[in-house]
Structures are given as C-alpha cells and as structure tokens.
Design a protein that fits this description.
The chain has about 525 residues and is an alpha+beta fold. About 40% of the residues lie in helices and about 10% in strands. It has four domains: about 35 residues, no CATH class; about 270 residues, no CATH class; about 60 residues, no CATH class; about 90 residues, no CATH class. The strands form five sheets. Strands 5-4-9 form a three-stranded antiparallel β-sheet. A three-stranded antiparallel β-sheet has the order 6-7-8, with no helix packed on it. Strands 1-2 form a two-stranded antiparallel ribbon. Helix 2 crosses helix 3. The protein is extended.
Length: about 525
C-alpha cells in the first residue's frame, strides 16, 4: 500500500528588502540594500544613514599619512612643537593670547535667584578648584596641537575649608556640589575609543598606562571633550599642525643639509690615502676599516688628530699613508637653503594665521599688517568660542543638574570678552568725525565713563557737569534782538560754536598725538575697521 503523500506547504519567504526593512523597524538600524527608504511615522525619528567614520574596534584610520596616524601622529606633533622654534613660537603665541581673554558668566535674567546661580557658577569655575583657571586654559588649548583634548570632571561636596578629604574641602560651606578639578587625560595615553556600533556615538576614552600595565576607561559623560574641526563625528578632530607638517618636514631636512654644508665648508673634505695593495688584500679589511673610521671621526670633536706611519714608497718621497683635508679657503658663500627655509617658515605661521610673527622680515603696508592681525584675532576668538561652547554643554549644565535650584529661569552661560583691546586712536577719530558731522556728542557722562575705562584712565577727580538752565527759562526774562532772537539765545549760539571749535581742536590733537601717522592713514585708506 502506497504511503500518502505529505501535503506540501508553501513557505512564503520575505525578500531581502522586506527583511532588512523589518529589521530596521524593530532595531532602529537599517542596512542599505540599494532600495529607497520610505519615510513613515515609525522611522521619522530614527537615524538611517551612517557617519562612515573609518574606525576598527575604536582605533581610527581617518589619517592617510601613516606617520600621523594614532600614537605615531601624537608623537610627531609633540616633536614638531618641542624641536622647531617657528612652531613653538606660533603655538605659544596662541596660548598667551587665549590667556589674556577675559571669561565670565552671564545670568539668565536679572532675578535674584538667577544672580545667585551666576555667582555660584563663577565661584565653582574660577575660584574653588585645585588649579587656577589659567592653568586649565593652558591644558584646554592643547586641542590645537593634537586635535582633541579630554579632561575628566572630578566633583566635590562643598563642606568648608577645614575638611581633610579633598572631595569635601572647599572655600564654601553650603553643602552644594562643585568642581574639584578638571583632570587632564593626556593625548599620548589614548589607546582607542569606545564607539557604539548601533548609534555610532563615542561613549568613552580607553587609556593605557605608559608607566606599566593597566587599562582605564573614562566615560565622556563624566568629562569635557574638545575636538577641533571634527568631521564625521571624529573624536580626535584635526590638529592645526596637520597643515604645517609638510612644510615642517621639508624645513627640517633643509636645516640638516645646511649644517652639513657649513661643516664641510669650514672643516674641509677628508681624503685618506692608503696603498692599493692594502685595499685589495683580502686579509687586510680591518686596516681599511680603521682608516675609514678615522675619516669619519674628523668632525667628531675639536681634539681629533691623526697618528700615521711616515714610511715612504721605495725610491720616492710620497708617504705610504696620508690624510688630507680639502677645504674652501674663501669666505663661506651664501647658502642656497636660506630662501626655501624662510618660505617654509611662512607656511608654518600661516597655518596659525599668525603672519605677524614674520612682519619684521619683510616690507609691507601698515594696513596689511593690521589686516593680518585681524585674521589672527578671528582665530583666537574661534578657539575661545569652542572653549565656552564645550564647557557650557558638557560641564556647567551637568553641574546644575546635580544641584537643586527652585525658580531658576535658566543656566548661567560662560562667555568671553574681546580678544584685543579697543584702539583709543580709532575712538578719537570716530568722535572727531561725529562732531564734524554735527552730532551732539558731548556732554555725555556715560560716554566719558566708557572712554576712560577703555583707555585705562582714572575717572576719579574729573569734575561733574553742572546743571544747565533751560533756554525757555532764560527767554522769559530776555528781550528779543534785531534778528528775532533773545539775548540768551544769541549768547547760547555763540557759546555752542566756540565750544564745538574747542572740541574739534581737542579731538584733532588727540588723534594727532596717539593715532596713526599721516602716511599710515593714507595707506589704510579704504581699510575696514576690525569688527568686535
């Protein structure tokens, strides 16, 4: 008896696109299949694409120059700063400029609670940490050199200055949580990054102890992380020195060639003569090597000398062994490396927009020098903007989440002031032009206070302006003159004209005394005033 056939069941398989779409709807991750993605209410809040950051297990491979990738790149940038005077001067100039910029907190409103929160943030960041604010600024700006910087936030409970435990010691005894320190996690200790494979977010920094064994994990939720010119979510950013590496490498090689050329020109080229039979002998290689070493040791030190046998060839006066220095007895010529080295120096400082470091080596107009200075100011301002942005988002906001504030309308915001001081000569020129145009500039006590503050002049002892009697009160008791004006009006007009002339003369003297020269002003004609 034949067995009955089993009923065939049709299994409806999903296409690859359907499978992938189902996986996307359930997990939030969508793997591209070449098919268009339909936007629905379910996936409108999800991230469909990827940043395409080249990383393998948290180790980045974005840099295409192998010498500048990972730890090798960090060592290369450190060598550039420590060994090259041009790079060190440019970076030091940036650091000093950032240190001179004032930083402060702006309250969210004029209310009492917001002012109290502003004072609290000021005390935590500028007064009540283990190191000074200037010391932290020096560490923050290392992201310019390496491209990134990580500082772990260490908190403390503010329980007064008499506490022995540093996690509780503070200048204040209000029981609030404040900053103890921003502990730097050096760039050279980086092993790899903890990157979420689903969301592609950087979760933490994994360190290696350079002094021995040990791996440490620093979560970025408990740190401030600076990344300069970061693209594709690259946690290592991009070093400013990356653009100067080629010029530095060529300049370094030329300087080595220059030293060799000077040494050869001053000491001469050594020529060692030994008999041909000694050179061709198979069992005499040790003697040949010894005389070759003598030739190499000519440049070792000033005490080097030669001890040679004086035997001569048979029937001749020529010594069998001889060493001669062939040198140029003429003064050293101008080396051809000077111009290219200067060119590469210019390329290095232009990376920092710090061309003003080279102004003493070339001629140019006063307006050009000022324009170059303005570009450097823009660079420093962008660095300060990044410092404020990162601290506000990653440190100050977390600090206020740890402390309870009732009725707070907003978190205080860290801001910075102008990078450069106000040019008093420009203020004098502006006031002069305004008065020439007929503007009623003075008397104005608020304006005077502002000018004195900008110029750094004391305001104490300056007499206050006496009250002026209105023209209506004077006209009530004064008969009209021939022109229909009262005597008070005519007198006031004369005094106004005389006063205006005096102010014009005074403003002109101010500009002539502290302003730019006529030649400089002529060269600066049409130039733009630095926007602040």
């Amino acid at each position: 008896m034949a067995k009955p056939k089993k009923k065939e069941t049709t299994i409806k398989s999903r296409t690859r696109g359907e499978l992938r779409k189902q996986d996307y709807l359930s997990t939030g991750a969508y793997y591209a299949t070449g098919e268009p993605t339909v936007v629905t209410k379910k996936n409108i809040y999800a991230e469909i694409g990827i940043p395409a950051l080249k990383q393998f297990g948290g180790i980045l491979a974005e840099e295409w120059v192998e010498e500048l990738r990972g730890q090798r790149g960090i060592r290369a940038y450190k060598t550039m700063v420590d060994s090259d005077a041009t790079v060190f001067a440019a970076l030091n100039m940036v650091t000093m400029a950032v240190r001179q910029v004032p930083f402060w907190f702006n309250a969210a409103s004029d209310s009492e609670i917001d002012s109290e929160a502003q004072d609290f943030a000021t005390d935590c960041l500028f007064k009540d940490m283990e190191n000074s604010w200037q010391a932290y600024l020096d560490e923050f700006v290392t992201f310019i050199k390496f491209g990134f910087d990580v500082h772990e936030i260490v908190y403390k409970l503010r329980m007064g200055p008499d506490q022995k435990d540093p996690s509780r010691r503070s200048l204040y005894n209000d029981g609030r949580i404040g900053f103890r320190k921003f502990a730097m996690r050096p760039q050279e200790s980086l092993f790899k990054w903890d990157i979420d494979p689903q969301t592609h977010e950087v979760k933490g920094m994994i360190q290696l102890n350079p002094a021995g064994a040990g791996v440490y994990y620093v979560p970025l939720d408990k740190a401030v992380h600076f990344a300069y010119r970061s693209t594709k979510g690259n946690p290592e950013g991009s070093s400013v020195l990356r653009g100067a590496y080629s010029a530095y490498y060529k300049k370094h090689k030329l300087e080595d060639f220059e030293l060799i050329g000077i040494e050869r020109n001053m000491a001469g080229l050594p020529i060692v003569r030994i008999p041909l039979s000694e050179l061709q002998a198979d069992d005499n290689q040790e003697t040949v090597d010894r005389y070759m070493q003598i030739g190499e040791d000519v440049y070792r030190n000033e005490d080097a000398f030669f001890l040679l046998p004086s035997d001569t060839f048979e029937g001749a006066t020529t010594p069998m062994y001889d060493i001669e220095l062939v040198g140029n007895q003429q003064p050293a010529p101008s080396l051809p490396t000077t111009e290219p080295i200067a060119r590469y120096q210019g390329e290095i400082v232009r990376v920092f927009l710090a061309d003003i470091l080279l102004l003493g080596n070339a001629t140019g107009s006063w307006a050009l020098a000022k324009e170059k200075s303005n570009f450097f100011v823009m660079f420093i301002s962008s660095v300060c903007d990044l410092i404020c942005e990162v601290l506000n988002k990653q440190a100050i906001s977390k600090l206020f989440k740890l402390n309870t504030w009732e009725g707070l309308s907003g978190i205080p915001e860290l801001v910075h002031g102008d990078v450069t001081e106000t040019d008093v000569a420009e203020i004098g020129m502006l006031l002069l032009n305004l008065m020439r145009a007929g503007a009623d500039v003075f008397p104005n006590d608020d304006l005077l206070d502002s000018i004195y503050d900008e110029a750094g002049l004391p305001r104490t002892g300056v007499p206050t302006r006496e009250p002026v009697i209105s023209a209506t009160e004077q006209n009530e008791e004064q008969p009209p003159t021939k022109g229909g004006k009262t005597q008070a009006q005519a007198q006031t007009q004369k005094q106004t004209i005389a006063t205006r002339r005096q102010k014009l003369n005074a403003a002109g003297a101010l500009v002539q005394g502290i302003g730019p020269t006529k030649k400089a002003k002529k060269m600066n004609k049409g130039g733009k005033r630095n926007a602040r």
